[in-house]
Write a structure and sequence with these properties.
Layout: H1 4-19, H2 40-54, H3 60-64, H4 69-80
Helix pairs in contact: 1-2, 1-4
Length: 84
């Protein structure tokens, strides 16, 4: 998961697998809470999934500010490139 496209594809696959969403609903502009109907418990599951994929944990405070799929992509991108 190095590029934003890689992160998006991995995230889309995770959202489809974890929350049984149709892949076409998962777009960069999709709002996690309104469009994809992700609730706070689902968000915790998603954070845990990201940790397993990257080996790094997104801070809950940072995840509170995400609204769209693109926000998550950017947060993961910053996370995986923080050491670079």
């Amino acid at each position: 998961m190095q590029t934003r496209d890689d992160i998006f594809n991995t995230l889309r696959d995770a959202l489809v697998e974890l929350f049984e969403l149709e892949p076409e609903r998962v777009t960069l502009d999709a709002n996690l809470y309104q469009d994809l109907e992700i609730d706070s418990i689902d968000a915790v599951d998603l954070i845990d999934h990201i940790k397993r994929k990257t080996g790094k944990r997104i801070a809950a405070e940072e995840f509170k500010s995400v609204r769209t799929v693109n926000d998550v992509v950017e947060a993961v991108y910053r996370l995986v490139h923080a050491d670079a």
